[in-house]
Structures are given as structure tokens and as C-alpha cells.
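Example 5.3 — SWIM-type domain-containing protein
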Amino acid sequence: MRMREDLLALDTEALAALANRGLVKRAGKDLEKSPPTLSEGEDVTAEFPDGTVAVLPASARFESADCTCAAKGLCRHMLVLVLAYQAEHGRREAAGHPAEITDEELAARFPAGVLARAESRIDRGLRAHVDGMTVELPETAVVFHGGSNLELAHSDVKGDDHSVAVVLAVKALREGTDGTVHLGAESVDPSPCTELLPTVESLLATGIAGADEVQTSRLRQHADRLRRKRLNWPADVLADTARQIEHYRSRSTAYDESAYAGLLAEFRARHDAALRRPTTALLGFEESSTAALKLIRLAPLGARVSSDDDHLHVEMYYAQLETGMTHVITRSFAHREELLTVRDVLHRRYARHRIADLAQSTVITEAAGRSAGRVLTLGTGRLARTQTLPLGSGWSEFRPPLRYDDPDELLAAVRSRDPGLLRDRVAVRDLVVVPVESIEGLDYDPAAQVLTVTLNGSIRLRAGYSAASPGRLRILEEALSGSPAEVSGFVSLRGGRLTLDPLAVVDGAITVPDLAVEDGGEAPAGDAPPDDDPLRRVLQEAHRALASCAHRGLSGLRPSDLRRLAEAADLLEEHGFAEIARQIAALGKGATAEGWHTAMVRVLFSLDEL
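Solution (predicted C-alpha cells):
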């Protein structure tokens, strides 16, 4: 009789990844109460007192297991089989390391088509983040629960996509067990972007008022052409630029002058950086298309509610329990006779669940797809299976780069990241979980309608009022006044200090301030917070002046625009930003696209560093 080393190597974490933690606990209780009778041959068979029979074929994945119960997927009887087998033979540590697996062994394990797809991904250039036995790829994360036993490697993608991911993860582990590694080509030709620089400079020269439907259509065509060449990030910039022009032409409040200027600056910045350091990451060359997912478990991290002229938008954030990979589900609801608020949409349904329940629950689904930008879509048909459960202890299981117990470690991580203009264009960035050790100095600025609190002695939590969710500050204050265990939010540097824009607070249950249905009520108590860092205010004024120039068009600047540039330059000079001051002053004497880009990029990079 051959010992099933793969079953003996499965620990609780591995079983939870294959099923879920609640089912594993139930299986343990069932084993104590009604242990099955095991039969071992080529297959392992468990016969239960109630007549249920579970069979795990030799050398087969759990997807091939068979049980006479009515449950779909990996059932509790199969988990009891594994636990009973371990009780009889003794659980053992996983043998071997995936990095020790040779190409010859991979060829014997996987079909030629899978290996060819993996090599094609490597030839195009692939970046992976390795953390012990977890490898995060652009399209999924692979966790090796069984050492060198690849049957127990877990990912959330299906079929051959899973096999390709496992092969890539094995090759990534050969490069190291901690940090970012590169496979294959690390550079990509940015020349298709070079050809489009005149288009971007034309927009900068004429201003947004000079952009018509023809130009918007061409921007989308250029974006499609870049995407076919796998230059995904520049393609996204052009598509977003076209969207901003459409917002402006339709007089929508979704148009953002600063965002529009930032897009023009980003396209040029990515292009120039890729000329100096043509890595695949700068241009999004390694990103893949939408992937269909198998069973995944998502812990809620909070939600953000916003509104424009046309729609109310709800963004619900999650982290995958097995890997910590972050995702977002977005839903938009059209305003009708009156502007919607969050109260009006919480009862609306998506994937047969209320928005309120989805946003505040652990989501378990077998019907999800994920884009390269980490946007999730859930199946909505009758056969689509999506379940919601309480959060439980989900956040406590996470590690960096999602959860940081040490503020100094978080500060170092924030300072080491790439500038915002050059980072991955994924839907979820800078989202972290912070355990709460102490809360001090709750302050409220009634003029700015901003609530601030100091967490753990060094992290400033800062939240502003939202007309789309008028009760958010009151609910946030109440949650922070209790005994919160953890807070999630978007982290940034402001005045050289860690600042958290909160999404959710956990104290046993999860509180999502943006989903508050009550009115704001009285303003939170407390004194007005101190002003923001003066250096940051000076840079922000320079940024606004440059964004106004992009909006107006460099060829049509008015005397008021020139005065604003001169005033911004004087302030920059006064506060020690001599080089940026010189560049902005030069724009006032003769604005050029080259000068504008240089000044805007320097301002944005400086804001990132403060």
C-alpha cells in the first residue's frame, strides 16, 4: 500500500484554501463524533455511519474526488477523509520545495500546450512577487501548500490557466523566495508611444475646449492599438483622457481639471521613463486579460461612495483570504429626478445579494471574473453561486503588503514605492489594514468638514464629508470612540507623515462609514486640526496653476493665467523649491509643451515625497 504523502502534508491552512475555514472546523467535529471507516488501496475510500461514501482517486486532484452526498465541490466528507487519514498515519510536513522541480519534471507533469503558454508569458517579460511559498503573478497568486507536490498548489483561476500559473510560479521561486523577481525580458519598446506624443502635445496646446468628437474617437483608436501591442498602461491613459473630454463636453461634474492634466503628464512621464529604463512594468506589458475564477473567498475591506451629475458610484473593496490580493467590485446607479444618496441604493441587488450585505460580508463565490486591473465581476445567473458570511477574524490573517503591524515598516514601504505617475494602473492601490493600538486627539474642522484622529502615535486618520454619504463622519466618530481593533484605508504621505483615508473599522463586526444610512446630525466634537504642511500647500497651488494651463491650452493663456503662474513661482522660490520655481516662471514667459511637462512632473513627484 502506497502512503499518500500528499494527504499527510495538508495542514489546516491548506484545507481552508481548498474549501473554507468553517467547513474544516465542522469536519474536525464530525471526525470526533462519527469517524468513517477507511479503505486504502489505489484509492482512499471513507464510508460514513449514515451510508455516505467518499472516494479520492490515486494521484488525483480534489476536483476529481467523488462523494455520494448532494454537496457540490469539495464537501465536508472529503475533508473528514483527509483528517481521518492523517489521524491514522500522522500528519507530516510537506516534502521538497517547488524551486527544486526541474524543467524535465514540469514537462512530465503538464501538457505541452501549458508549457508553451508559460514560455510565451516569460518571453514577453513577467514580474512576480515572491513571499515564502506564495507567488503573486499579474493574473493570480499561487500558494504551494504541499511543497514540491504540485497537486496541492492553489490558485483562483481555472483549468489550463491554473496550470500555467503553477509553472510560472515554480520558475519564479527559482529566482528567490522574497521580493520581486523578473522572468524573461525586462524591457519593452516604447516607440509606439513616441509616435503618439504629438497627439498629447496637441491637446496640451489647444486645451480641452478644442477637443472634439473626432479627436476623442482617435484617442480611443490609439488606445486600442497600444493595447494590441500590450502597452496596457499608456492605452489606459489615452482611454481615460478620452473619457475626461467626454465628461467636459457633456458638462458633467465627473470632469476633473486636475485629473485631465495629470493624464497628459502621465503619458509623457511613462514614455520618458521607459526610454531611460524600458521595463515592462512601466508600460503594463506583462498584464493579462480578464480571467475566469474558481472558488474564491473575499474578506471585506470597506467601501467608497461617490457621486457625479449622472450616477452614484459604490466601490466595494476586498482581499482574497488565501493570498491577500486586493480587488474591487464597482456598481453605478443612475440618478433620476433627485440625486441618489447611499440610503437609496443599499437595498439594490447584485449577484442576488443586497449591496449592503455584499460590502460588509465575507464573499464566497464560484462565479467571478477578474480583469488585469483587479476589478471583479460576479455572475448574476440562477446557477451563479455567491454566498455571504460574517467577517469573523479575516483581517488578522493578512500580512504585508496589506496588513502592517509596525508603523515604521509601513512608512518604509510607502517611501519605497514608485511615484504615482509610474506605478501599476490597477484599481486598488495603497489599500492597507492597520491594527489600532491607541487613538488620540479627535479633531473636527467645521469649515473644511474634515475629521482627524491620530492612530498608534504616528498615523493620522483623515476623513472628509461626502454629500453622497452624509452620515459617514458621524458613524466613523462613533466607531473610533469605541474599542476598534483594526482600520482599513488608503495610505499616503502628507507633510512627511503617514495619513490614512479610512474605509472600514473593525471591532468584532465591521463598520463601513460610507454606507451610513443616517443623516450627519451634529458635527463631531473637537477642535479644528492644524493646517496641512505649508510646503504641500505651495506645491498644490503650483499644481492647480499648471492644471489650469492644460485646461485652457498653452496657446491660449490669458494674462490671469500668466499672473497665476508667476505667483506660484514666487511661492515656490520662497519655500525652497528653486528649480521648480524657475521652470514655472519660464512658462509664464513662453509656454511650451516640454516646459509644462517638466514642471508638472516635478511638482507631482515632489507631492509624492511629502
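Remark. Residues 257-276 form the longest helix (20 residues).
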